[in-house]
Amino acid sequence: MMNIPCPFCGSRNEAEFAFGGPVKPDRSDPNTVSEEEWVAYLTQVPNPLGPVQERWWHVKGCGMWLTIWRDTRTHDIVEGPADAE
Amino acid sequence: MLDLSLLIIKYMPMMQKYSAAALLRHGLNRHTTWPRAWRCPPLKDAYDVIIIGAGGHGLATAYHLAKDHGITNVAVLERGWLGGGNIARNTVTIRSNYMRDASIPFYVKSVALYEELTKALNFNMMHSKRTMVDVVQTYPKMRELRRRQLTMDIYGSTYEQITVDALRRRIPALTGGGPDARLPIIGGMVHTDAGVNRHDAVAWGYARAIDAMGVEIHQQTAVESLVRGADGRIEGVQTNRGLVRAPKVAVAVSGHTTTLTETAGLKLPLRTMNLTAFVSEPVKPLVDVIVNCPDAGFYFSQSDKGEMVIGGAPDMGQSFRRDIKQHVFEDTVTAMLSLFPSFKKLKLLRQWGGHLDIAHDASPIMDQTDVPGLFITAGWWGGYKAIPAGGLTLAHLVATGRPHDLMSKFTLKRFRHLDYVMESGTTTAR
Q: Tell me, what's the ipTM?
């Protein structure tokens, strides 16, 4: 069970959240970046054996979007939203 | 009988044929004379081909390399133990109800190979072709399955719509989902090609067959990194037992694909997820088909021992865990009880998870990478059903350098051309 620290509601069960996916770099302009970079942007996400930065939506709570670093091996939250912002 | 065993000896020189006669003969010796099913040879410095991962795909690839292409100077390297990876962490469901023209023929072939596997490997797979029934509760799902049916018809897979009444006759334990339910059942689909078998037999059967043909299996041999030569080609692998060289290396490690390929500087469109399952206590025969409830979000079948083998959705987000998370478990149980309320009395015995990688378009990737000599087979979400055909096609690719016809659409190039083979929704990947 994972408790996600919501800046508004405090530590809440992950069942209240919707997963928003890993954080991706800003969308670049497909007309200016190389084809390779564009395909990488579209299809690749970081897949680390360790902390990954990702977005969660407190949809069954306050509705806030937040960003955390979560360890993919243990699901420990290594950095909460307050530290990130 | 003598002639037959001579034939077998000629065909597979080192293998003890399993038969009623052998059982009797060794039984007279109190079963103390059975030979080992496979060797534990010393690790050599170099091979023609290294396969990383002695899971289903790795073993099947070695089998077809040796049998179809005569390549036997092969090492299959396994970090853990034989049959201890994802081949033991699935729900043994074998089926071919996919969506895309590129996918269905591959899975049709794989189902056919599975059905012949007991004979081919002289190992009882306990294959039980018992049909899968989809319980449909929403019209969008029904439309999607009917669309799949039309495509499957073209390639000789089986899908047939049945009424709610027929569905309830087929699965008497299905007592939920009535007219007053939040999602009443509106119909079902029947996939008669589907079946289950015994996962250990798949691992052990392939292992015994490849060992007899001269392939080496090395357990407890963890590949730490891929080693490239000065010219950029793959040169070998660094293991916990030292450097092992080979001009061709195939990565068949499921969830850890990117962990390994990143050591050779490769980035791949894969992310790793944890898909879990759990098992009830054994009960008397109750359900004789594989039941899949895509709208409720769970599926199960009853094993030969009588246990209900139940699976649900993956963890949210990427995950290298190998256990079930409490809320994933609770969600799956809640969904199951909405349709099978009598299962409330079942006691649950064990749970497991397997980490597997899923590609950007939810279809597998089988290709030679940008590192010459380095091959990957990855993105097998529900790769258990794909083991025989996955081995057949990867062996073809490794031996000839050209993709097998059945896998020619599943290259890495498809991402370069944004030519996806979208299979989202045809597995538990939602």
A: 0.91
